[in-house]
Specification:
- 2 copies of one chain form a homodimer.
- Chain A is mainly α and 245 residues long.
- Chain A has 2 domains: 53 residues, Homeodomain-like (Arc Repressor Mutant, subunit A), CATH 1.10.10.60; 140 residues, Tetracycline Repressor, domain 2, CATH 1.10.357.10.
- In chain A, 63% of the residues lie in helices and 0% in strands.
- The first copy, chain A, contains 11 helices and no strands.
- In chain A, helix 1 crosses helix 7, helix 4 runs parallel beside helix 8 and helix 5 runs antiparallel to helix 6.
- Chain A is elongated, with a radius of gyration of 22 Å.
- The interface between A and B is large, with 52 and 52 residues.
- Chain A binds a DNA duplex (30 and 30 nucleotides) through helix 3.
Chain lengths: 245, 245
DNA sequence: GACAAATTCAAACATGTGTTTGAAACTGTT
DNA sequence: AACAGTTTCAAACACATGTTTGAATTTGTC
């Protein structure tokens, strides 16, 4: 079903070759489409957008070269769909539910960090997700810029809220922003610089248990400062650190 | 001078066309070589290795297409030389001198952070340096891997020493490593995710003054935890935070 | 000034790319 | 069974890429 009329984006040129009707919505395999998206994700992540060839993608998907043109108009359309699908499957679900829970803000922060790092371990989200994101982070394409606005910005602003809440400052305060970047930076290092880190610290393995320890460390590391600058309550004695030492 | 015999790396194939002597070390322009390296850096940073074309590089350098082949054997050789030159001009000089100073380790840490972030502001190192590094960070090429071992690893290990010194743990302790990553992550966020950050926080400008404030924040943020877990001295009262609030 | 080496140049080469084509194979409906 | 709409396919197209060539030009030295 669906097929080419899906290209609602500012296309302009002619859609397909012959007739572009789709009234009866007849049955269609749709399987090649899926295989193409899956294969494309891997190849784009491995080689990067430019170096990835539609031929290799189609070969891995067991499809004909013309398939990408038929299903996604062209290479760019395929890439855009890969990104769009990533946004849907993104592991931000865990972060969102963590942010929605009712708990002390400090505990919420810990859970958000955990949720984010969990997504990095093993192959929970197909591991190529982060390799694509890593590429886009340093050199965003237009397709990614749109995604940022749609999925990343809301999360970012909720993080600002959360941290502002912890240190007792408004979300748009510069200090709040700097603290948010400090937390995000610690997390992103593992997402963006994974390969380099593994090279520097050969013993590092991204197992779920290890990611959990790392998440706890980042939470402890961050909360030390966030609590320190919080006005009013002066060094809450009961728990001076947090959990694991 | 120099010329093709510079290709000492595991080449194998024939070096150039005709004679490969260079005894008299005759005069040579060497200017095209420089122009090529400069132009290549920009183009590689803008487009990425794959998407960058030798034709655009040569056009920007005002040189003939065959020049890259003559001076650097091929595209890969040119890229390797760009990376090698970057290693030389890298702004790690400031970090090194900061690490060599004799001062309390906490103060050294602050200076190291400052030195690193200073390099990011404005256009001190040609701004394309970081765009290339950002690409290589997530998807390292063999050429980069060699550079990591030569320049990044030594610095990384001195950072481990320094932070281990602050928290009173050996450099190869896991906690020391995690803390080092926490500091590095905060710094690298600005180097690696610059474009995205600017998009999220439109007001952010990378002026030297701003980078200085950010550096101070990162130092304060990090030292809060590093001091907290340091054994023995329990919360040195005199200065509870550090400098700027 | 003459010679040889180093360097540049315009042109071509070989290859791989994204894309298109027109026909064949498939699908569900009448 | 016949049909219209869909999906697939092998082949080709148009083009841009990295690289090479052989001659021209420059450069330094005797």
């Amino acid at each position: 079903m669906c097929l080419k009329l899906l290209f609602d984006m500012k296309t302009g040129t002619r859609l397909v070759r012959k007739s572009q009707r789709s009234p009866a919505a007849p049955a269609a395999s749709d399987a090649t489409r899926e295989k193409l998206l899956e294969a494309a994700g891997r190849v784009f992540a491995d080689r990067g957008y430019e170096a990835a060839t539609v031929r290799e993608i189609c070969r891995r998907a067991g499809a004909n070269v013309a398939a990408v043109n038929y299903h996604f108009r062209d290479k760019q359309g395929l890439y855009a769909q890969v990104l769009a699908r990533m946004a849907g499957e993104a592991r931000i679900e865990g972060m969102r539910v963590a942010l929605d829970q009712s708990a002390p803000p400090e505990e919420i922060l810990r859970r958000v960090i955990k949720a984010r790092l969990q997504g990095l371990g093993a192959h929970r989200p197909p591991d190529w997700h982060f390799r694509i994101v890593a590429r886009e982070f340093s050199h965003p394409t237009p397709a990614m810029s749109r995604m940022i606005d749609k999925v990343s910005r809301p999360l970012y602003e909720r993080m600002l809220d959360l941290i502002g809440q912890i240190i007792g400052l408004p979300a748009d305060n510069e200090k709040t922003r700097l603290c948010t970047y400090s937390v995000m930076g610690q997390i992103f290092l593992y997402a963006l610089a994974g390969p380099i880190l593994m090279k520097l610290w050969s013993g590092m393995k991204m197992t779920p248990e290890q990611m959990d320890r790392i998440a706890d460390h980042i939470a402890d590391f961050s909360l030390a400062y966030l609590r320190e600058i919080r006005p009013g309550q002066r060094q809450t004695l009961p728990v001076f650190s947090t959990r694991r030492s």
